[in-house]
Specification:
The complex is a heterodimer. Helix content of chain A is about 0%, strand content about 50%. By secondary structure, chain A is mostly beta strands. In chain A, a hairpin with a 3-residue loop joins strand 4 (about 30-40) and strand 5. Helices cover about 0% and strands about 55% of the residues of chain B. The chains are: A mainly beta, B mainly beta. The interface of A and B includes residues 92 and 101 of A.
Amino acid sequence: NAGVTQTPKFQVLKTGQSMTLQCAQDMNHEYMSWYRQDPGMGLRLIHYSVGAGITDQGEVPNGYNVSRSTTEDFPLRLLSAAPSQTSVYFCASSYLPGQIISGNTIYFGEGSWLTVV
Amino acid sequence: GIQVEQSPPDLILQEGANSTLRCNFSDSVNNLQWFHQNPWGQLINLFYIPSGTKQNGRLSATTVATERYSLLYISSSQTTDSGVYFCAVVNQAGTALIFGKGTTLSVSS
């Protein structure tokens, strides 16, 4: 059981380049999400999905695109990278957040460190 | 939306000291969790505690939902406790975890 797998772990991009952060989970979770973590800001939700074919915006969606064609995968696309997107990105999966009960938790990937120069 | 505030933002301790971290939230919640992010960035769930008290070794947590706060206690701190502690609540739509900005704990030997 691999849990939540994110790739790549580190990436340097030039301004204007595009790239995709990959996220996969093998726990058959309906819910998947992407957060970004910036110093002093905690984790902020970018996009989330409650099932295959269903996605929605979080708190900071601008400049990012997502899709959910399968239950397992939830890639995050940066369309035209900007220095403001330098951050650490976390993918997470769980049962639906409204249904998280004791013993069911949210699982985070190990993070992807992205630098845009 | 729900606001989550944590205090203190930073905490520096000597090994063996006790500490209390606080999480205030702006609306009633039925799902509150505490996480620890270690210095390598890994996020680990510590407690699911929408109300009441739970203990796990040297860590314990108490949530008083009616007064909209939760406390995380760390006793006899160790250097391995260093990192950032987050509390998070589920938003009212049930679609996302809303995180506080965290408390950064540094424990020195």
